[in-house]
Amino acid sequence: MITKPEIRNAPRWFILGTDVVICIISICIAFLLRFDFNLHEADMKYLKGAMVSVILVRLLSFLLFKSYAGVIRYTSSKDIQRIFLVLLSGSLLFFILNETIPLFKIQYNIPRTIIAIDFMVSLVMMVAFRLTIKISYERIKNTAKSKASVIIYGAGEFGTITKRALDRDAGTKYNVIAFVDDSNERRGMKIEGINILSSKDLPKFTESKDIHHIILADQKLTTAKKQEIVDFALSRNIRILDVPPSQSWINGELSFKQIKKVKIEDLLDRDEIVLDKNKIQEVNTHKTILISGAAGSIGSEIVRQLASFNPKLLVLLDQAESALFDLEVELKEKFKNLKFELVIGDISDENRMNLLFKTFQPEIVYHAAAYKHVPMMENNPAEAVRVNVKGTKNLADLAIENKAKKFVMVSTDKAVNPTNVMGASKRISEIYCQSLNKKGTTSFITTRFGNVLGSNGSVIPVFKKQIESGGPITVTHPEITRFFMTIPEACQLVLEAGAHGKGGEIFIFDMGKSVKIIDLAKKMIKLSRLELGKDIEIVYSGLRPGEKLYEELLNNEENTKKTHHSKIMIANVKEYDLNEISTSIQELTLLLAGTNNEEMVKKMKEIVPEFKSQNSIYEKLD
User: Which residues contact 245 (CB under 8 A, 6 or more apart)?
Assistant: First the structure.
């Protein structure tokens, strides 16, 4: 086994002795410089006297200030400052001795120019001595410790900045051996002596070299390209790191500690959405806006995004006290001029909601409050009806009564051909809002999308916890797939649809390709530097009540109409008569008093004929 050479601290007597020798050499150099390297016998006599003074004064000052006590290989600016003060105090003493010793009829004089030259030469030599030792130690340490070979993907400005951050902050650990860039202009060139390769050269290059890391420094990489690079790196057991956007750098400077592991969320994200910010601003600026479910993952992000559009007042409604408090703290820190009111309340409480609307008179309502957990609502259908159906009806009716301009409801892909109570409750809410659009002056707009990354109950946080605890990772079924969207992306599209909606539309979002959950789990294991079957296992737990293998969005051309935005479409869905749906909902909510689950689910199936239960005790009702 190869062991690192032991590096001991230099003894203090050695440092003290070296400093004294440096001072002796320095006074000699000062005399030589002062007399143009032509010393006479009288000058030598003064030099001998000066050397005695230098030895005594410098030794005394070194002992007094303990300038020799620091560990040389860790010399810092404070050590250099101490040396400066020690030498300066000694030189000032020489000036004093020049004035006082002749008073005692003793022949003594060190020319002032020599004192000044001696001070500067001593300072330079003592600092150079320490820095030489420090640099030598770093070199010995680097040769004793093997460096990890690194490839930087991106040879532009960010690639160069990344290399310098590595050299500055982590030079003892990493060695950049290549840049990779697909630009024809840069290919074959060099940056600071390091070759720039094409991505086509990467497979062959990594076969011949032991690569530890690939760092993604190209800020313009598409998600598809990033996914391709990550897949390649994982297949070669190469760790992948990502440089954060420049706006998140501390004081505008990148440090190595900011370069993080690639997260699974980064790979499921899509390219940046282009929004009609002028239209969103026109609709929301200087308006009183109510956000229900404001402390939830979707609601809180809607709040953050609305905060930048200078609203008159944001009314933040939620029944979760602690989460609402956390949001309050965040808003006060990040948006100091934002005017907002916190309201703790249950949307199914008619009196509470009536008071809220009368007090604040919201002009726009973003309705994100809902129960969303499929298995829980399957076991508690009364709560799905109470909150998702009755609660939505309360807010929608009050929006019309108080002449709100827009009511934007956040729905779910599970409302499409629902197979569970939660999805059916959201579909009933959609039907009611769409039908209500014809009644008053309020425009009712519904937005529908799939799973959002990092939201409460999302599969990714669950997988992360399972990986951190050593597994196993539980997947319900080997064939189950889901659509995914980031929270900011989903909320941006909600604002966009809300701004452009005329009323009565059910907007659906382009969720991209559905993701196989088993593939997601395997990729997260690899990103965690673990090996499936060796470090961690995947087990199948079976579909949960009401869960289906594939989610639907109705986002094909036969069932949708195009809009102004390529990622937003309007669903072609059946329209219901307002009186009929109002009567049906009234009959459904009356069943809450008896809490007969089967009767409630049966009524929900009458309202939504396409509601067919799966993996549920309510299949017998179909």
Answer: 219
Exposed, middle or buried, 345 (CB in 10 Å: 0-12/13-18/19+)?
middle
Give residue for tokens 């497979």.
Answer: 203
Question: How many Cα atoms sit within 13 Å of 328 on the Cβ side?
Answer: 15
* Distance in angstroms (rounded) separating the CA atoms of residues 328 and 342: 8
In the set 414, 426, 523, 605, the catalytic residue is 414
> How much is the pTM?
0.67
Whole-number Å distance between alpha carbons of 546 and 421: 7
Give the 3-state secondary structure of residue 586: helix
Q: In the 8-state DSSP scheme, what is residue 565?
A: S
Residue 332 annotated in active site: no
Q: What is the pLDDT of residues 261-276, one digit of tens each?
A: 777 766 665 555 666 7
* Domains, the chain, with CATH or none: 12-144 (no CATH), 148-262 (3.40.50.720), 277-621 (3.40.50.720)
- Two structure tokens written together for 595: 């809490």
The span from the CA of 416 to the CA of 511, in Å, is 14
Q: Does residue 412 contact residue 394 with C-beta atoms inside 8 Å?
A: no
- Summarised one tens digit per residue, pLDDT across range 434-472 is 999 888 899 999 998 777 766 666 777 788 888 888 878
Cβ 160 vs Cβ 186: under 8 Å: no
300-319 residue pLDDT tens:
999 999 998 999 999 999 99
Closest CA to 418 of 217, 247, 612, 571: 612
Indicate the DSSP class of residue 258.
G
